[in-house]
Amino acid sequence: TIEVLEFLLLIGSLQQRIIGGQEVEPYSIKYQASLQYNNQHYCGGTLIHPQWVVSAAHCWKPNYVIKVVLSEHDLFKKEGVEQVFNVSKTIVYYLYNYRTFDNDLMLLKLEKPANLNSNVQPVKLPGPDTPPTYGGMFCAVSGWGVTQVYSYSLSPVLRAVDVQIISNCQYYYFYRITDNMVCAGSPMGGKDSCQGDSGGPLVCNGYFEGIVSWGIGCANPYFPGVYTKVRNYIRWINWIIDTNRD
User: What whole-number distance in Å separates Cα of residue 89 and Cα of residue 243?
Assistant: First the structure.
């Protein structure tokens, strides 16, 4: 029934979606952000501008309780190079639907610009001339999410996994995939984002193409991970940045 499916979708989103990946070279994913509440990581994010981070709308909390951490590798070690920011604004996309997860993105404005250095750089946004993604294309997803399907423990260190774009995603999700979503996973299962990765980046060919959004379970060949399709929102993102320069 629709009610059962909606419950499954909700559970999938709470399983906030790295299974099958490996620890990255520290600070090599220079755009990766950690969203933290009470000094604990709860969602990922992506630096797109010295003062702006993109995450999933379902990661929303009041801006005054969120800290954004850049140049983070081990969540449980003070490494001395972290940049920690208060958030002055959270702007959820105005058509976000919390039932279907359509338009699942938000922008966070940092209280001050990040110090761009060898560890911290914004990701490249796709432009009108960036070739589209295609089925079978390899992309990287990164985060501090759980590393085993039935675990509730976050990874202490940043991890990444290569996943493939899955083009016929409607087949898996009963026509719940909108034009604002893109699916990625492994045809054999075993590779996916999972709890604690939500809001983090899916990067294809060096371009920021997806935001970890939802799915049913993790690393299941029958249910690939579902990502917000970033290229549909470039004009909105640029407009928000341009109109919030105060």
Answer: 13
Options 34, 41, 55, 58, the catalytic residue: 58
In this predicted model, what pLDDT tens digit does every residue of 170-207 receive, in sequence order?
888 888 999 999 999 987 777 767 776 899 999 999 99
**Set 104, 155, 186, 197: catalytic member:** 104
Could you give the C-alpha distances from 236 to 35, 58, 210, in angstroms and in order?
22, 18, 15
Closest CA to 120 of 88, 82, 85: 82
What is the residue extent of each domain of the chain?
Answer: 8-22+124-231, 30-122+233-243
Q: List the CATH code of the domain at 8-22+124-231.
A: 2.40.10.10
Fold matches, 8-22+124-231 and 30-122+233-243: yes
Q: Which CATH superfamily is domain 30-122+233-243 in?
A: Trypsin-like serine proteases (2.40.10.10)
Which residue in 55, 142, 193, 198 is the catalytic one? 198
Active site residue 198: yes
Question: pTM score > 0.85 for this model?
Answer: yes
Closest to 75 (Cα-Cα) out of 106, 117, 118, 44: 44
Give 180's DSSP letter: T
